[in-house]
């Protein structure tokens, strides 16, 4: 569950605490900006299809 989620035409931006990270985010299968306690994650449309 993300604290903030912004849907765009090409995917979704999510801001969430580190402890809520999914497997694909922890292993950097999707684009992640690590801010310490928070993660800013970009899930592209292709990523959403690949990691449901």
Question: How would you sum up this structure, described in words?
Answer:
- 19% of the residues lie in helices and 42% in strands.
- The model has no long low-confidence stretch (mean pLDDT 94).
- It is an alpha+beta fold and 52 residues long.
- It has two helices and four strands; from the N terminus they run ββαββα.
- Strand 1 (4-7) and strand 2 (11-17) form a beta hairpin.
- The protein has one domain.
Short note summarizing the structure:
This protein is α+β, with helices and mostly antiparallel strands. The chain has helices at residues 23-26, 45-50; strands at residues 4-7, 11-17, 31-34, 38-44.
Summary tags:
52 residues, alpha+beta, 4-stranded antiparallel sheet, globular
User: How would you classify the helix and strand content by structural class?
Assistant: alpha+beta
Instruction: Enumerate the spans where pLDDT stays under 50 for 5 or more consecutive residues.
Output: none
Helix content: 10-25%
Order of helices and strands: EEHEEH
Distance between the termini: 14 Å
What is the total number of structural domains? 1
